[in-house]
Here is the input.
Amino acid sequence: MAAHAQEPLLGARVESLLEYARTHNPDYATMRLEAEAAGERVAPTGALPDPRLRIELRDITRFGEQSPTLAPDRVGSTRYLLMQDVPWFGKRDLKREIAELEAEGAQGRAMGSWAELSARIKAAYAQLYYVHRNERLAREILDLMTRLEKIAQVRYAGGLSAQQDAIRAQVEQTGMKAELIALENERRQLQARMNALLARSVDAPLAEPMQLRPLPTAERLGFAALAERVRARNPQLFTEGARIRSAEKSRELAYKNRYPDFTFGVSPIQYQNAVKEWELMLELNLPLQQATRRAQERESEAMLSASRTRAAAASNQVLAELAEHLAGVDAARRSEALTASSLLPQADLTFRAALAGYENGKVDFATLLDAQRQIRQAKLSRIKAQVEAQVRLAEIERLLGEDL
Here is the structure.
């Protein structure tokens, strides 16, 4: 119990959350099991059907000379018929290939389920990071407003400012406390959402997010290279490709249904205690319902065309989303750089100058509050840009089906 109590809380790093979700999320587990089940259907689909055995007891009264009996050695004769159904050449191979492609499609859906789940976890982690940093910044501003209130009270006691300055500082503190309540509520909601993604109790504790993942370099986020990777690895496109190949095989199978299937049989005939006759049997179905088969062939052609159209539409949509998220990452990266290099230092200098000017009586309290809001807005803008880049990166990795 002591060792368990010393274990670090889950949630400090996004990698630990992803590892936990991979083994505990029931939706992803369901998709993996369905993919495994689809893989197990391949062998039975391509196998021959089970043979059939028929036993016929003939003349069970021996021309009325005895009472009816079911003993094979006492009836007139007993016919044993062993039959095996054999499809037309190539049909079994096509059915097995269709089952394999359906298993690939199920595997692609499982991959897509994990890509979607991991993207949601990464986005929720980034949002939790933003809320935690916002709370920390709000508490820093609350402490600052407490100090400014004391400065205003000292100046008011010395007759250097109006009492309104201290009152405004108190109003700002009340506003910050109300904002902290709202941030705490948002944090609890995000924690409940994260625990739901992890299949944990909604009130299970989570550690404070420590840091965001580093962004890939601009060269690695080039559209041309990522577009090729998306076409090759995207789970949705992978599934659509398997569906197209399955539709092609289904079309081939529909055309092969023009030819008959066979049933072969061998039949020994028993008289009393000895087998004295042997028979061979060949049975085949006659594909005379041509209208039905032509309709099935047209159906397979239509399904193939639909699969190709759906795959083309999915490819266009995925590439459009990729371009959109790449533009979002670039904008967030530039916004963060601008805020860190220009806006934040300028806001800090403005606040320091306003604070010094207020202490010297050169600026009013409203100017000081405005400078304080600017520096807080600059810090929030930087954190927001970082989080926006992380959310966009999570969406890009969802489209890729793998981490960058």
